[in-house]
Amino acid sequence: RPTSCHPSAGVGAMSMHMPLAVLPPRLLRSLVIRLVPVVASAMLAACIASADVVESSCPSEECRKQAPDMRDVPDVLLLQMSSKHGSVTFEEIEAHSDRPAAGFNLPPWAAGGEIARRIFREEAAYQPLASAASTARYWHAPVDHFAPQGKVGGTFRQKFYANWEFFKKGGPVFFELGGESPVRGPPGGFTRRLASERAALLVVVEHRFYGDSIPNGSMNSSNLKLLTVDQALADYAAFIDWYSAEERLPKGTKWFIFGGSYPGALASWFRIAYPDKSVGSLSSSGVVNAIFDFVMFDVSITRAIGPRCAEAHRAITTAFESFVLARGADEAFAKALLGCRPGMLDGDFFYMLADALAMMVQYSSKSILCSNITGLDYESVTAKAIMENAAALIKDSWGAHFGTSCFYDTACISDPTNGPNDRAWRWQKCYELAYLQSAPLPNQLEDGQPLPKPLRSSLVNMSYMVGQCYAMFGEFNAIRGAIEESAAKINAQFGGPQPKARKVFYSNFADDPWMEASVMPPRDVDDEQPYEAALCDDCGHCMDLHTPRSSDPVELQQVRARFTKYLDSWLAEE
Q1: pLDDT value of position 446
Q2: Angle at the Cα of 319 (from 316 to 322), degrees rounded to 5?
Q3: How far apart are CA 43 and CA 444, in angstroms?
Q4: Does residue 522 have a cis bond before it (omega within 30 degrees)?
Q5: Can you tell me whether residue 526 is helix, strand or coil?
Q6: Is the N or C terminus of the chain more exposed, i.e. has fewer CB atoms within 10 Å?
Q7: Would you list the DSSP string of 50-100?
Q8: Residues 337 and 392: beta-carbon distance below 8 Å
Q9: What pLDDT is recorded for position 126?
Q10: Cα pseudo-dihedral 241, 247, 250, 255, rounded to 10
Q11: Confidence of residue 251 (pLDDT cuts 50, 70, 90)
Q12: How far apart are CA 261 and CA 240, in angstroms?
């Protein structure tokens, strides 16, 4: 049966003299931590063999449905399968899982292509094989931490994972904050490496309104008003109190916060809102500056890829514009290249196109992007050939269904029944954080200097983006200027590009366009808020959080080394 491949099923089926139910909780945890890797390894080997047989003897899709179901196997065990057994491929894991097996740090809609496969292969090669499995657990978080006194707001089930394999009495807790995607297992990568060296307990909590953690079970706009930065930070603070009591952690156990991207901003903001709950944090690519008109996102991409690659990028945008705006069969052809229907809004389509290319720079693949798109002779090549080449690159990089993701489709996101994750992040941008990535305007200046010509279509402008917010969520704010006001309020509360925190380490990376929404000069805000940037090619978003490799650029190694000194110093303080 499919469930026979689940680690929990295998452990439960073992013959024991003492029933598991009567063991003391601490002894039970210790037993499970020691048994799961051994049992899982043998069990997964059987599953792998079964999968091979099924694949070779089941030519029909119906037959293959009986293959082992891996959706509850933690990512670290999937890595074991790939590393130890060459017969299990990325595609096989994808085929039997409802989650992207290789989507480390990638948005869920972008985890189906070669970039995800590359990350998967790299993590599999460097991730240690010995690891305890972790199953999802839930705690009852308050729906509204700020409900009026006397009003009962109720609770919701919020998912979390914990990995106890390294923890020893007196060790710290490394707490990874969930962000704008579901959580699928305990912290890995660099955080896990640090935990193994410091006897730390690893914990991650899923952000409200993502994955399985939906207050009131609704994504309607009226309920989404419970999706705010303050509510999320209060979740994490309350969880620390609850979990410390639930697990009877030793008094004085130190919690250290980790986060990357939006959770990187949360890692800084948490230190401001709840400074006594932790001893420090790492804000990797932390977007602490809530920018309403984020035109510098496009500008940052332009500067990272250089003039020749930028001109090739603009040629792609121009080619698609010439077909889409011609309407009729030309529009249908251009949009179909990326799997989109002719009726998809032009703004939606060109936002998706811009994001597809920008994300290659953001996720450390600038070299791949530029080597591909600069390989054409743009003086002689046709617009059709330019589009076909770009579409093939996008689908290879992010997967065949990238262009049809709900995330880029106003009509899809407008329906609250279409799944939580895409709608939740778009709500956070519209309601509170902005980061609206517009195209630079003609002759637009920054600090008295003209901005470079835009890479993205001029159709991706502030009028489109603000209008899209109201199309997706209705009149969620009475004043149309409320988005800009909300972003300004967040910055006033936490400090924007110069955060008001203590003991936060900020890391950034040269090719990451989100660096423009991070800490701004002076970079080292003060002695207790150090900043370090890895200025290297193909150094992208949250790169320090990946599992360290001997081949990592020297600049990246230096970022990790400097952070580690602060980590140990802050943990050592009384």
Answers
A1: 85
A2: 150
A3: 61
A4: yes
A5: strand
A6: C
A7: HHHHHHHH--SHHHHTTSPP-TTS-HHHHHHHHHH-TT--HHHHHHT-SS-
A8: no
A9: 58
A10: -50
A11: very high
A12: 22
Please list, in sequence order, all residues whose beta carbon lies within 8 angstroms of the beta carbon of residue 551, skipping any fewer than 6 positions away.
none
Whole-number Å distance between alpha carbons of 179 and 220: 20
Whether 143 and 216 have beta carbons less than 8 Å apart is answered as: yes
Distance set, CA 418 to CA 54, 84, 208, 511 (Å): 33, 38, 17, 33
CA-CA-CA-CA dihedral for 430, 436, 439, 443, to nearest 10 = 110
Q: Is the pTM of this model over 0.70?
A: yes
Q: Do residues 450 and 443 make contact, with C-beta atoms less than 8 angstroms apart?
A: yes
Rounded distance between C-alpha atoms, residue 534 and residue 561, angstroms: 12
DSSP code of residue 366: H
Backbone φ and ψ for 449, nearest 5 degrees, come out as -110, 140
Report d(CA 226, CA 250) in Å as an integer.
Answer: 33
Kindly tell me the burial class for residue 213, based on how many C-beta atoms sit within 10 Å of its own C-beta (0-12, 13-18, 19 or more).
Answer: buried
**Strands laid side by side in the 280-284 sheet:** 137-142, 155-163, 201-205, 173-177, 255-260, 280-284, 504-509, 531-534
CB of 223 closer than 8 Å to CB of 114: no
- Distance (Å, whole) CA 316 – CA 299: 17
Check: CB of residue 422 under 8 Å from CB of residue 407: yes
Element (H, E) at 15: none
Average pLDDT over residues 445-455: 92
Counting residues of the chain whose pLDDT is more than 90, the rounded percentage is 71
